[in-house]
Design brief:
single chain; 205 residues; alpha/beta; Rossmann fold; 2 domains; five-stranded parallel β-sheet; two-stranded antiparallel sheet; 7 helices; 32% helix; globular
Length: 205
């Protein structure tokens, strides 16, 4: 689906109380569309890159009361009965990016967070919605396969390049007319990504 269709689909999935999982090649706008939805619904974004996380960042840190061990929940997760919705906001959008690039141990630690909306023994705040994203496994972008347990609980949405949709966005966003004209004349230059390329970079939306 293109970027417009993706935005509509994410909103429908969230309204159904489910968790969308967005996949695409690098640079197509997964993060941008997610943050745009958060702005539309007045949600504060919690941007968590799973490649930069350890299991304790999702489960909590072990603490000991002298008799038993428990886990102290991380501060970055809004919890029911503990945290209040920020002033002027309607809640939070927890964006778990680079999901498929995270080590399997971190993905496993995310099961309870995504599937049960729990951090250790604590429940996520009811005003938290979750969006996951990752790169396609065909793009040589350091991707680990999702477990079947996680796959079956997510709503999979794949973003693809759509030059017409990008041009409509670029016009409405007020991009330089020379850039728009160039892409109109060279539509194949908008996204030139080859997973086996030897260049230092590539063009993307």
């Amino acid at each position: 689906m293109n970027i417009v269709e993706l935005k509509e689909a994410i909103i429908h999935v969230l309204q159904a109380g489910l968790v969308p999982y967005i996949t695409s090649s690098p640079g197509l706008g997964k993060s941008d569309v997610t943050k745009g939805i958060a702005k539309q619904f007045n949600w504060e974004v919690i941007d968590l890159r799973l490649t930069q996380c350890d299991s304790t960042d999702l489960l909590g840190f072990p603490v000991h009361d002298g008799i038993r061990m428990n886990y102290a929940p991380p501060r970055h997760f809004p919890l029911q009965g503990i945290d209040k919705v920020p002033d002027g906001k309607n809640g939070w959008l927890l964006f778990l990016d680079e999901f498929s690039s995270a080590p399997m141990s971190v993905q496993a630690s995310a099961y309870r967070l995504v599937l049960d909306r729990q951090v250790g023994e604590y429940n996520l705040h009811k005003n938290v919605v979750i969006v996951c994203a990752g790169n396609k496994d065909s793009d040589n972008a350091i991707v680990n396969r999702l477990s079947t347990a996680m796959q079956s609980r997510l709503v999979h949405l794949e973003l693809e390049i759509d030059v017409r949709a990008w041009l409509d966005w670029a016009t409405s966003a007020g991009l330089d007319h020379r850039v728009i004209s160039y892409v109109e004349g060279h539509p194949d230059h908008l996204h030139q990504f080859d997973p086996n390329h030897n260049d230092k970079t590539f063009s993307c939306p």
